[in-house]
Amino acid sequence: MRITVIGCCGSFAGPDGAASSYLLEHEDASGRTWRILLDLGSGAFGPLQRVLDPADLDAVIISHLHPDHYLDVTGLEVFWAYHERDDLGTLPIHAPAELPDRIAAVLGRNGIIPDGVSCAPFEHHVLADAERFTIGPLSFEPRLVIHPVEAYGFRITDGTSTLVYSGDSDECPALDELAADADLFLCEAGYIEGRDDHFTGVHLTGKRAGECAQRAGVKQLALTHVPAWTDPQIPLAEAREQYTGPITLVRPMDILHVHP
Ligand SMILES: [Zn+2]
Ligand SMILES: [Zn+2]
Fold first, then answer.
1. Which of 50, 122, 125, 249 is most buried when burial is the number of CB atoms within 10 A of its CB?
2. 221 phi, psi to nearest 5 deg
3. Do residues 216 and 181 make contact, with C-beta atoms less than 8 angstroms apart?
């Protein structure tokens, strides 16, 4: 598996990049490359087009319905519905149940089918805790994590290597279970110790992300979702005090390889 960081800015798009979005690619046994988007937050649909033609996507997964994780699905819908090609079919989207209503509300119309389009561009699949699903050669296990809205983390495997994506979460047993022995743990660190102590059940700090990675015995930790107003060296230093394995701080357009 290979991940291209499309956007990794926490909570809102920043001056140097979009909010959360990660392109996951994996080749199956026949050599076909599967392309799956994990989140499509505010500002991310633009840089996504520098990396691939969105018409080549196989599926989209939305961890939760905060704008920094789903809002640019509205742009993708316009792209898919009105594309000059008429062979795109419907694009599967795995997300919390309210996503179709949110898209319709942002675009200011009642139904989920755009005006003048003969069929819905998206095939909506509702995420549920611990209900696994597969896309091509990849298996996904979603788990409800701790956040102010229904939010999922994911354990993703190709049969030999395992990627875990925290989505947005504070520390919780489900995240520890998801992350167990992961080859790569892509984990948010939206908060820092001290400044954000009055918030609970929202985001991890670098310290809590590092503690989770250490408890779970992950092979590599990649920190993400640092907001524009935070010096990323702070959560990185916090995590380094807790986790003894290799840590990266992701940047837009980074490519991460997941291998055993
Ligand atoms: Zn977020
Ligand atoms: Zn969130």
1. 122
2. -115, 130
3. yes
Q: What is the DSSP letter of 43?
A: T
CA of 27 to the centre of ligand 2 (A): 30
Separation of CA 58 and ligand 2 centre (Å)? 24
Predicted confidence (pLDDT) per residue in 28-40, tens digit: 999 999 999 999 9
Question: 148 CA to middle of ligand 1, Å?
Answer: 11
Which of 15-19, 90-94, 98-102, 113-117 comes out lowest in average pLDDT? Answer: 113-117
Determine the Cα–Cα distance for residues 18 and 211; give it in Å rounded to an integer: 27
Question: Does 3.10.310.30 match the CATH number of domain 2-257?
Answer: no
Distance CA 238, CA 193 (A): 8
Ligand 1 centre to CA of 221 (Å) is 18
Domain ranges of the chain: 2-257
Give me ligand 1 centre to Cα 4, in Å.
18
Contact between 121 and 220 under an 8 Å Cβ cutoff? The reply is: no
